[in-house]
Amino acid sequence: MPVTNGKVIFKSIPKGYPEPGKTVVYDDSEKIDLESVPIPDGGFLVKTLYLSVDPYMRGRMREPDVKSYAPPFIVGQPIDGYGVGVVLKSKSSEFKQGAHVYGTFKHQNYIVFHNRSDLIVLDNKQKLPWSYYVGAAGMPGKTAYMAWKEYSSAKKGETVFVSGGAGPVGSFVIQFAKMDGCKVIASAGSDEKVEFMKSIGADVAFNYKTSNTLDVLNKHGPIDIYWDNVGGPTLEAALEAANVNARFIECGMISGYNTGGAPIKNIMHVIAKSISMFGFIVMRLEHKYDDQFYKEVPELIASGKLKVREEVWEGLQSVGDAILAVQKGTNKAKAVVHVADE
């Protein structure tokens, strides 16, 4: 019998924050017969289990002729992002029935892949929840792990500042910095997130909405490494409080994603303090660190040496709400959409 193949459709390009039901909409009009759906040679049918909602998705909600590192979403088509699913039917020697796969998924219940695309098979020897593979053991975890190894040059006793420290990337950076013997200052936008950052090892954790960032950094700095998830005034404060020869790891600038951004007025500190600034996209580091990541990080999570927190939204219908929460910072942890059980 045919079943519903629900989809999340990109409906319109937002001018500010994406609006659930206007920017993206849930469409349940399509049916799929799982028994008779055509599978091409080398292809396979996947049932979506979990999807990731991440800050970078806002940048894909743009006019198609605007260039960027990630392709734009196309109006009228399903959005896509990182996901985990299970193979239901296969004509592929690599992706066998019953295998769990991770990679780029259209936001829909069932997907016929014509080839391997960017998917990998997950062995999950540690028996982690499958949702972790779109978060701590997926792209956000890779972002923290790979860029910290590549750019931090961390030395024991140095002072690290992490903005967005309660998120899936920032929270891992805090923990990696502590493993390397650093003092960690971390900021987030709620008192609940401050308590979480303290619980994972931050030496100084503060709410940037109720504390002055520069005052905190002047008191507890200077800073040797800044992991930047937010840009804007926080980046300006970090430049003011930076030590000579500081390293700035530029991961994201979510403070400007929905407002068009703002100029940084004190960038001259990069020269005056001999600051090294590293911008990066995690996909460009995967070839170097992917094997090491999957060897080390799932084991660290399973052993409890890396603490993980996630917030789960239920069903494809909730994707728009999850996207908005991530952009506004009202989510409490890594945003994951639970699409289906196995």
From TrEMBL:
InterPro entries, per database record: ADH-like_C (IPR013149), ADH_N_2 (IPR041694), ER (IPR020843), GroES-like_sf (IPR011032), MDR_fam (IPR045010), NAD(P)-bd_dom_sf (IPR036291)
Signal sequence interval, chain numbering: none
SMART domains associated with the record: PKS_ER
Molecular function in Gene Ontology: oxidoreductase activity, acting on the CH-CH group of donors, NAD or NADP as acceptor
Ranges in coiled-coil conformation: none
Ranges for domain Enoyl reductase (ER): 21-337
CDD domains to which the protein is assigned, alphabetical: PGDH (cd05288)
Assigned keywords, A-Z: Oxidoreductase
Protein name per the record: Alcohol dehydrogenase
